[in-house]
Design a protein that fits this description.
This protein has about 110 residues and is α+β, with helices and mostly antiparallel strands. It has three helices and four strands. The chain has two domains: about 60 residues, no CATH class; about 35 residues.
C-alpha cells in the first residue's frame, strides 16, 4: 500500500506485461497509475493524485476527499435497538459505542 495526500493506492505486478499497475482505493473516482520499476510506480502514484487534484481545480469540481469521517450504517431495527440500549448503559453515545467496537475489532485483527 502507498499513501499520498490522504489517498491510498494498491499496486499489482503483471508478470506478462512486466509492469506494475495501481489503483487508488479510497475514492469512488477512478485514479490509476503504472510504472516499470518501484521508482516509476511511486512517481506515477503521486503524479496521478496531483493530476486528479489539478483537474478538479481547473474544472471547479470538489475532489472526492478520502475518508471524511462520516459513513452511513444500515442495521436491522433489532440490532439498532440493542446498540442504542447497550451504548446508553455504558454512558456512551451510539457513535462512540460503534467507534469503540470498530477499534476493538481492528486491534484484534492487527494483532494477528
Amino acid at each position: 500500500m502507498m499513501e499520498y495526500k490522504g489517498y491510498i493506492g494498491i499496486v499489482e505486478y503483471d508478470d506478462k506485461a512486466k509492469i506494475f499497475h495501481g489503483d487508488i482505493i479510497n475514492t469512488r473516482d477512478v485514479i490509476t497509475f503504472q510504472g516499470k520499476s518501484v521508482d516509476e510506480i511511486e512517481m506515477a502514484f503521486r503524479e496521478s493524485i496531483d493530476d486528479y487534484l489539478s483537474w478538479c481545480e481547473q474544472d471547479g469540481v470538489n475532489p472526492e476527499k478520502p475518508y471524511s469521517g462520516k459513513f452511513n450504517l444500515r442495521l436491522s431495527p433489532e440490532l439498532h435497538k440493542d446498540v442504542a440500549v447497550t451504548a446508553k448503559k455504558l454512558k456512551l453515545s451510539i457513535n462512540s459505542f460503534v467507534e469503540k467496537a470498530l477499534l476493538d475489532e481492528i486491534n484484534v485483527h492487527k494483532a494477528m
